[in-house]
Amino acid sequence: MWIFHWGKYVDKRMTLRSRLVFSPSVHRLRSQQGNPDGDKAKRPPNLVNWNQPDYRTKAKGVQLHPTPHVLDWEEAGNGVRAVGDSFGDEAEPPVYRINKGLSGFHETWMQDSKNYFLGRSDMRETLKDLYSNTLFQQVTDRLKEAYPAFDADRFMTLIHNEAWEQEEFKQRIRHITLALTDTLPASYREAVGILKQVAPHFRGVEYVFFPDYVEVNGMDDLETSMEALAVFTHSSTAEFAVRPFIIRDQDRMLAQMMAWAQSDDEHLRRLASEGCRPRLPWAPQLPALIKDPRPALPILEQLKEDSSLYVRKSVANHLNDISKDHPELVLEIAAKWYGKHPLTDWIVRHALRSLLRKGDIRALAIFGYEELEKLEGLEVRELRIKRSVITMGDNLEFAFQVVNETGYPMALRIDYEIDYMKASGKLAPKRYKCSDKIYAPGCWKVEKKQSFKPISTRRFYSGDHRLHIVVNGKRLASMDFVLEGAE
Questions:
Q1: 416: containing domain
Q2: Rounded distance between C-alpha atoms, residue 127 and residue 129, angstroms
Q3: Is the pTM of this model over 0.85?
Q4: Which backbone phi and psi does 483 adopt, to 5 degrees?
Q5: Fewer CB in a 10 Å sphere around the end CB: N or C, the chain?
Q6: Sign of the four-CA dihedral 100, 102, 107, 112
Q7: 104-121, pLDDT tens digit by residue?
Q8: Is the distance from CB of 103 to CB of 233 less than 8 angstroms?
Q9: Contact 143, 191 (CB under 8 A)
Q10: Looking at residue 390, which CATH number applies to its domain?
Q11: Exposed/middle/buried for 113, CB within 10 Å: 0-12, 13-18, 19+?
Q12: Beta carbons of 242 and 259 less than 8 angstroms apart
């Protein structure tokens, strides 16, 4: 996985350009976030404002709060104030996980943060600039050790051609792969053998060109390629490189991935799930598995009680992918799995996050959320917006009361939804997580704010907007506000 090490503190809200360092020295740190079999993490006090600058998680011996989902970057840093001491699948402090190698970091980066990172020019610059002369010197030195005939000067000439400076990160990966193809032996097996000696000396996102070499050159030698990817996935991740092989020969590749799912190596077990995700971000889709995901389900079944959070999160993300095309199938799996094992329960909740966010009554029912249409005595009152007219760059600050007069505790998933003005003059909704906990009888105040600062993943337009408070999938309160100073 990719490692972001900011020295003493790890925090989503830090400026990436100024704080980001890739450090292999921390690659073995583990987060126990959402891990029922890990040590108990210290829970935050009630009504914590996660925007307080003194709230940090130390990287050394990192122990994050055991809540089962990392915030979308789009939602992070908005100051969730949670009532009570329970946090649901997204209402958690915006603290970033540390894990091993590229794949664990990549998992969060790709799934939870794709809208943030892939749209930020400064992040793209940071990633592509990982390819420094120092890095290439280290790689070529190792290549010379493994293959004395390696022409390092020619390799560097091929790297620094007229196209290099204009290329983005993914283009540079392929550029390096082609330079290696030109300078390593023509025999694929011999070349891969050399790279298998070199790759274990490196770890991080920048070394994804090792599996990319297999993708480009090894399509006609499946056995050699799979042996190589099993090695290279430790240095970076092979989840992209396996996909062309799956598209070419799905049955044979799924058999290979089932074998990986039974491995003692957590990186291979994760690759078994992540590599065949139908809609893996930043990767080619798998049309056959989008149409019919059932052939890959035995792999997920094998991993549903995996001891590694790193693996379980991939299983959950895989199921979430499937839910976008086959919600009924995922609901069927969730109902069968839920309540059987605490590790599996975490997977189920994370897997259903998209359906829960949409307010799907069937998904809500799996976790005991009652259908509010059948109840009386549960209301949202006193919805207030601090300023009904906000300027681009400001926060929308609002508060409301959750009133439970049913006489018994209720499991409530509370979201807020903003109808954003679009260029067409129509409103389009976007739903965010607010709270997920048991609400005892009484009146509970909830405060929240949503940023309207410019971001590359959303274009804001001036005009009327609307805020809704959604409880267990049902809108219970709404209020209008106006955004000024946007397009």
A1: 376-484
A2: 5
A3: no
A4: -105, 130
A5: C
A6: positive
A7: 334 333 333 333 333 333
A8: yes
A9: no
A10: 2.60.40.10
A11: buried
A12: no
φ, ψ dihedrals at 385, nearest 5°: -105, 130
For 466-477, what is the mean pLDDT? 94
- The tokens for 392 are 């681009």
Q: Which long-range contacts (CB under 8 A, 24 or more apart) does 119-124 make?
A: 119/455, 119/456, 119/457, 120/16, 120/456, 121/456, 122/16, 122/17, 123/16, 124/168, 124/169
Give the span between the Cα atoms of 287 and 296, in whole angstroms: 13
Nearest Cα residue to 312 out of 261, 242, 360, 359: 261
Three-class SS state of 146: helix
Helix (H) or strand (E) holding 294, with range, is none
**Is 55 inside any structural domain?**
no
DSSP string, 30-51: ---TT-TTSPPPPPPPTT-BTT
Inside any domain, residue 119: no
- Number of other CB atoms surrounding residue 90 within 10 Å: 26
Could you read off the pLDDT of 307-345 as tens digits, one per residue?
999 999 999 999 999 999 999 999 999 999 999 999 999
Alpha carbon distances (Å) from 126 to 11, 13, 113 = 17, 16, 16
Cα R_g (the chain), whole angstroms = 24
Q: What is the C-alpha end-to-end distance of the chain, expressed in Å?
A: 38
Mean pLDDT of the chain: 78
Q: 404 lies in a domain?
A: yes
Q: How far is Cα 3 from Cα 343, in angstroms, rounded to an integer? A: 25
Cα atoms in the Cβ-side hemisphere of radius 13 Å centred on 147: 21
Model pLDDT for residues 249-297, shown as the tens digit of each residue: 999 999 999 999 999 999 999 999 999 999 999 899 999 999 999 999 9
3-state secondary structure of 428: strand
Structural domain count of the chain: 1
Q: Is residue 417 a contact partner of residue 429, using CB atoms and an 8 Å limit?
A: yes
The residue type found at 85 is: D
Q: Is position 2 within any domain?
A: no
